[in-house]
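Our preliminary data section would be incomplete without showing what the modeling component actually yields. Below, a chain of 380 amino acids is followed by its predicted structure, encoded as tokens that our downstream tools consume directly.
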Amino acid sequence: MKVVALVLDSVGLGFLPDAPLFGDEGADTLDHTLLKTGVDLPNLAGLGLGWVPGVHTLPRRPPKAAFGRMREANPGKDTSTGHWEFVGIHLKEPFRTFPEGFPEEFLWEWARAIGVRGWLLNRPYSGTEAIRDYGKTHLETRLPIVYTSADSVFQVAAHLDAVPLGTLYAWCEKARELLRGPYQVARVIARPFAGREGGFYRREDLRKDFALKPPPNVLHALRAAGVEVVGVGKIPDIYAHEGFSREVRTQDNLDGLEKTLDLMREPFTGLIFTNLVDFDARYGHRRDPKGYARALQELDAFLPRLLEALGPKDHFFLISDHGNDPTFFGTDHTREYGMLLWVGPGVEGDLGTRETFADLGATWARLFGARWEGPGTSLV
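Predicted structure:
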């Protein structure tokens, strides 16, 4: 038996009741994208996505999957917050954010540790705009471009011609080591870029995340039960590479789908856990509804191949971790319901609104017979 979990990163299904606390009242990633672009998603509609409360842009066709939505219990709306909750990690406090930039006390400690004489930027900023606005100065000074966002992240951008990739990774490793206690963030992200002034571009294939190590969770429980766990795309980065028997890197959404399909055809029992990040990184943050819609169409067209590859005992989940409404103001994530579609033997009906993403991990543990006594209620 295989369990396949495909995270449609940021494909939210409407704002949560507490969204006003995050400034996200009115956000609705899926509906707003489809209303803006008019695209059709026949295969997602065929699975039953149009029956989910709050989804108004897809027709209600006879569902081929169980359908529902998930409420995020963790305080936040970033990648780590949502993905950690998937596997049964409930946070008492949100990850620390730095809306005014990082304290100079920390930055000078870090600069001395990595042997540089300063830094550039140090504010919440769009990553593409950061290299556009500071790339020239960076090439002249070789100082790291430091920025953050509404998420709990410390991001460091450096041009590959000015700073060797290994040096950039070492800078980020040192930042991960120092960002503890009052400065603790969920992720440190290395953002290498290339090109010339007026045409700088990020090398997403060389990006590297340095995440906090997660506490014990469902992934550990599965491995303890002898279950193979394969992380595809940025999934292993989010969990600090803990709880996986294999890691598979991807270039983009289509590559992630192809590699997931290849894994589904392999003869093993286990969990295939894939993140499709382009919705979020390439289109949501850049407020590009047309690009977001194209990515949804690409996924929708690929879905039949994945469903055809399912064995008689296999299970397939389509889920999302937060929103990133490309029609909304700003460039940050939006606090929304997560998607939940489930295809499997004997699986059908309305799953309702789940009170936590952790129900997902509890379900995986139950399917594989792994011992899990943490948060979440199994759907089985």
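The chain has a mean pLDDT of 97. Residues 14 and 54 are 6 Å apart (CA to CA). Preliminary results of this kind motivate Aim 1 of the renewal.
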